[in-house]
Amino acid sequence: MKESLNDIARALVALHKGLLAADESTKSAAKRFEALGIPCDEETRRQYRQLLITTPGIEQYLSGVIFYDETIRQQTDDGVLFPKYLESHNIIPGIKVDKGLVPLDNFKDETITEGLDGLADRLKEYYSLGARFAKWRAAFKVDAAAHLPSKGALHANLHTMARYAAMCQTVGIVPIVEPEVLYEGSHTITEAKEATRAAIGLLMAMLQAYRVDLTGTILKTSMVLAGKQTDTPSKPEEVAQATLEVLHAAVPKELAGIVFLSGGQTPEQVRNNLQAVGARGEQPWPITFSFSRAVQDPAMQAWAGKAENVKNAQEIYLGLTRDNAQARHGEYGGNGTVAGDFVSQTQDA
C-alpha cells in the first residue's frame, strides 16, 4: 500500500530533522569544484555525494535528500543505489525536476523556469527509482525602482509551478514548491517582505486553482531579509519577525510544512536566522531547513577531493546539520562544535 502524500510530507518535516539539497546541476557542481581546485567529472561528483549521504549518524538530523538526475542513478562503492542507501537509513529520496532558468520574453532582468515538457514521464521514472518528493524552483529579483518582480513574471512562473505540483501528486510524489526571492541586491527588508508575500500569496492561489492537495505539499521559501549589498544587514530578530509575518499572511494552515533555503547566506548567518525563527515557538505548520551550500561548503573545502579527508569533512557536515536541526527549534547553544569552529574560521574566506 502506498503511503499518502500527507504521510510523506509530514515525514519530511519531522521533528529535529531537515532536508539536504544535493541537487546542483553538473554545471553548478563544476563551478564549485573548480573554485577549490577539485577535478570535476562523474566519478568525483559521485564520491562527493557519497561522502554526504554516508556520513555516520546523519539520519538523526536528515529526513530527506534532494538529488539531481545524475545523482539519483549513482551507487555507493558497495554497489548500492543512492536512493536505496537512503531508504535503508530512513531518509526519503527526492529529485529536482525543473530544467533551470531562462530569460522571460519581453521582461528585462527576469526569468522563467523550464521543464514541463515531458515531465509526466520523467516523474514516473523518478518514482520507480525511489523518489517520493520533488522540487521545482523559480527565482525573483527584487528591484523596487524597476518594479521587480513584475506581475507578469510572478504569474508566468507560479502558474507553471502549480502545474508541476499537480503532476507530481498524480503519480504519488510530494511537490516542494520553491519561489525564491533572491538575496542578491541592495533592497530593503521591507521590499523583500513585499516581494515574498506577493510570490507566496499568488502561488498558494495558483495551487488551489489547480486543485493541488496542500496537505501533501511543502513550501520552500527564502527568509525575509535585506539584500546582500545593502548597507544595513538584517538582524536575526528582524528576519524572524518579517518572515513569520509573511508566512502567517500568505500560507494556509493546511499546508504540510515549510522549509527554508539558505540562498547565499553564510552558514553562521542562516543558522542564526533559523534560530531566531525557531525561538518564536510552534507555528501553524512545521518549519525546518533545506540547505545546500550552508551545510556543504565547509565540508567540501575540508574534503578537497582527497580520500584521506573524507572523515574530517563528514564530521564538519554532520556538525553543521546537527546545529541547524537544533536551531529550527531555537535550541542551538553554540557549543563550540567542530562545525561551529570551522565555520567561524572560513565564513569570510
Topology:
Blueprint: H1 5-12, E1 18-21, H2 26-35, H3 42-53, E2 62-67, H4 69-72, H5 82-88, E3 92-96, E4 101-103, E5 111-113, H6 119-128, E6 133-140, H7 151-170, E7 174-181, H8 189-209, E8 218-221, H9 236-250, E9 257-260, H10 267-278, E10 287-291, H11 293-303, H12 310-327, H13 338-346
Parallel strand pairs: 1-2, 1-10, 2-3, 3-6, 6-7, 7-8, 8-9, 9-10
Antiparallel strand pairs: 4-5
Helix pairs in contact: 7-8, 8-9, 9-10, 10-12, 11-12, 12-13
Description:
The chain is 45% helix and 14% strand. By secondary structure, it is an alpha/beta fold. The chain has an eight-stranded parallel beta barrel with strand order 1-2-3-6-7-8-9-10, surrounded by six helices. Helix 8 links the parallel strand 7 (174-181) and strand 8 (218-221). Helix 11 (293-303) packs antiparallel against helix 12. The radius of gyration is 19 Å and the shape is globular. Residues 336-349 have low confidence and may be disordered.
What tags apply to this protein structure?
alpha/beta; disordered C terminus; 349 residues; two-stranded antiparallel ribbon; globular
N-to-C series of helices and strands: HEHHEHHEEEHEHEHEHEHEHHH
Decide which structural class fits the backbone: alpha/beta
Strand content: 5-15%
Overall shape: globular
The rounded distance between the terminal residues' Cα atoms is 50 Å
Q: Could you give the count of β-strands? A: 10
Q: If you average the pLDDT, what whole number results?
A: 94
Total helices: the number is 13
Which sheet architecture does the biggest sheet show?
A: 8 strands, parallel, barrel
Helix content: 40-55%
Give the strand line-up of the largest sheet: 1-2-3-6-7-8-9-10
Q: What does the radius of gyration come to?
A: 19 Å
Low-pLDDT ranges: 336-349
